Amino acid sequence: MNKLILVGSGGFAKELYQYLQSTNHKILGYIDKQRSEFYGLSYLGDEESLDQSFFKEASFLLGIGQVELRASIIAKLKARGASFFSFIHPSAIIAKDALFGEGVVLCPHTMLNAGAKLQDFVLLNIYASVAHDCVVGENSILCPYATLNGRAKTGKNCFLGTRASLLPNAKLGNNCVLSAGVMLSKSYKDDQLIFSLRTLKVKSK
Questions:
Q1: Roughly how many angstroms between the first and final C-alpha of the chain, as a whole number?
Q2: What is the spatial order of strands in the sheet that 26-31 belongs to?
Q3: DSSP H helices in 21-139
Q4: What is the per-residue pLDDT across 129-144, written as a single tens digit (0 to 9) for each?
Q5: What confidence tens digit (pLDDT) does each residue in 96-105 have?
Q6: Are 172 and 189 in contact (CB under 8 A)?
Q7: In this structure, how many other beta carbons lie within 10 angstroms of the beta carbon of residue 190?
Q8: 0.90 exceeded by the pTM?
Q9: Cα angle 199, 167, 11; round to 5
Q10: Looking at residue 181, what DSSP letter applies?
Q11: Within a 13 Å sphere around the CA of 130, how many CA atoms are in the beta-carbon half?
Q12: Apex 14 CA angle, 68 and 174, nearest 5
């Protein structure tokens, strides 16, 4: 049995909490900037005020669906010595030679195929899929039904909206956003917002 501290108490944290109900993991409480009524769990403070004793007792599970906020909180927790739990829902399909890093979350009915790699803190929401030999960069999020096709790649801190897809060999640089439903066949460099085959420069992280 793993002892966990849930990071966040918003919408995605609610979903993650429900997934955890069918497991034997023990949730010690949650951290957030403000206390809320969150399924009766103990409020433990935020990433800066949390008592240091918890860092040896439990692992942290990311329940936040915003890329920039995740990156900020991860950095603060790691600086305090945190370890992060990778949650893999029982319905997720993972090839034997696929790889994934620390703090990864694979929601129900996700797929990680042959030779694919998820770097640290990647989130695959329901029915998202990563095909053979793809790479998803650190702290990137694939929303429901988003897809990477063969040998596609994202940099770090990328966000793929619902049903967005990278076609084979397409690549995104760091800090890119691919809007919902967009099917991308070519590659883009860093800091791009891509929607309806138009692009805008986004502020660098």
A1: 37
A2: 26-31, 3-7, 59-62
A3: 54-57, 67-79
A4: 999 999 999 999 999 9
A5: 999 999 999 9
A6: no
A7: 17
A8: yes
A9: 70
A10: T
A11: 32
A12: 20
